[in-house]
Amino acid sequence: MYKKPVVLSVIIFFVNLVVLFNPLFAAQDTDVLTGVTTARKMIVNQNNQQAKQQAVSDALGIALQRAYVALVSRQMLASNLTFFYDTVLPRTADYIITYQVLGSIEDKGYYLVGVESKVNLKLLEKTMTAARILNVKKDKPSILFFIAEKMPWDDMPRYWWGKESAPGELISEKIIADKMIQDRFVVIANGTNRPDPLFYNINFDSVSDVSAAKRLGREMKADMIVFGHAVSSEAINRMGEEKTFHGRIDLEGYNIQTGEKVVVSQIQAVTKNEDARQGNILAMVKAAQLSSQDLSQKLDAYWQKNLRKEHTFDVKLEGENFLSRFIALKQQLNQMPGIENMQPKEIGSNTAMMEVFYKGKSSQFADAIMLKTFDSFGLEILEVTDSLVTIRFIEKGDASGQGKDSKVRSVPLEERPVTPLD
């Protein structure tokens, strides 16, 4: 039986983990998520080694779950739990680049461990993209719609957000969202899969609270929100014995990253019908069809312009046999579409810094540069931020991108957990 000093050491050990690694889980770059997780496992038949392996396995599973949540919203995680548990979690070892057991302690019949790990976000994104959970390429934005709809027989507009929401069947949103999906946009929380704003501690002051909609859009990891109103009514004019009906849809698109209003769509449509209810519905449908076409064209034009507008960032190069490799890479860059200009800032014997003017974001530049091949060496992207791309020259045979000077250590086979995740 363990005495108080041992129990106290357990507490001190895990407190030290929190102090040393704050925040507990933080992204080091866009492709790797590094952090510390803890777990414990009951010791069965005095088999301490098995309990330790299972605890480490559980800690790595928690690390993978945190990486998964970092890529999607909590709402999307909830709607894809089966995929996570059936497809991702059983393959935990595939997504762990390296890990280290920082400490392990036996206490009261349990084995406790603290594990630092690096999760391969790029591979996880690839898995989720193949399952159509993510749209990593971002050639089309992900959109969260806020369309309040009112027909003549409605006492108040129908909408899904806010305290007095009464969504019902939103004809306009369904038609518009279906068109967006057809045009390869990603529509978030469509149909019955609505997020609860209160779950994210977001309160809408009114049906027209765009600020709250932007905050919810960020929580749902949307690229854009589309906010607006759809109304139908009977018009004064008549066409013989038939009545005429007027549909109007006003929409505004906002870039979540900047908060700016970037798209405005205002559409009107007129239909005729002998039946008032049918006439209003047809007017709403016609207006929604026209609105979906107009919105799709405007969103697409804006997004492509936003992706392909010129950005300026630094490119840092480093590695062995530097000069010859730098010259070979620069020749490739001179022929690369999208590069408007390159200006050297610093050039040394084994490093260089260049300012690049590129029609696209730094992440797009990094994707394009990874397509380049060379006879005697390869490239490793070490870091990608909005202002800096760091590239290292690596030996041709080092397919993993972990040369002898790499700071990332691969996991020896004997250090991997051999028991399956529970």
What keyword list fits this structure?
about 425 residues, alpha+beta, Dodecin subunit-like, Rossmann fold, five-stranded mixed beta sheet, 11 helices, flat, disordered N terminus
Give a description of the structure.
The strands form three sheets. The chain has a five-stranded mixed β-sheet, with helices on both faces. Strands 11-12-10-14-13 form a five-stranded mixed β-sheet, with helices on one face. Strand 7 (224-239) and strand 8 (242-255) form a beta hairpin. Residues 1-29 and 399-422 have low confidence and may be disordered. The protein is built from eleven helices and 14 strands. The chain folds into three domains: 4-133, Dodecin subunit-like; 142-307, Rossmann fold (3-Layer(aba) Sandwich); 310-395. With 422 residues, it is α+β, with helices and mostly antiparallel strands. The protein has helices at 4-20, 48-71, 74-79, 81-88, 92-95, 121-130, 171-182, 210-219, 276-308, 322-334, 362-369; strands at 25-27, 32-42, 96-107, 110-120, 142-150, 186-187, 224-239, 242-255, 261-273, 310-318, 339-347, 351-359, 377-384, 388-395.
The CATH superfamily of the largest domain turns out to be ABC-type transport auxiliary lipoprotein component
Order of helices and strands: HEEHHHHEEHEHEHEEEHEHEEHEE
Name the beta content range: 25-35%
Cα end-to-end separation: 28 Å
User: Structural class of the secondary structure composition?
Assistant: alpha+beta
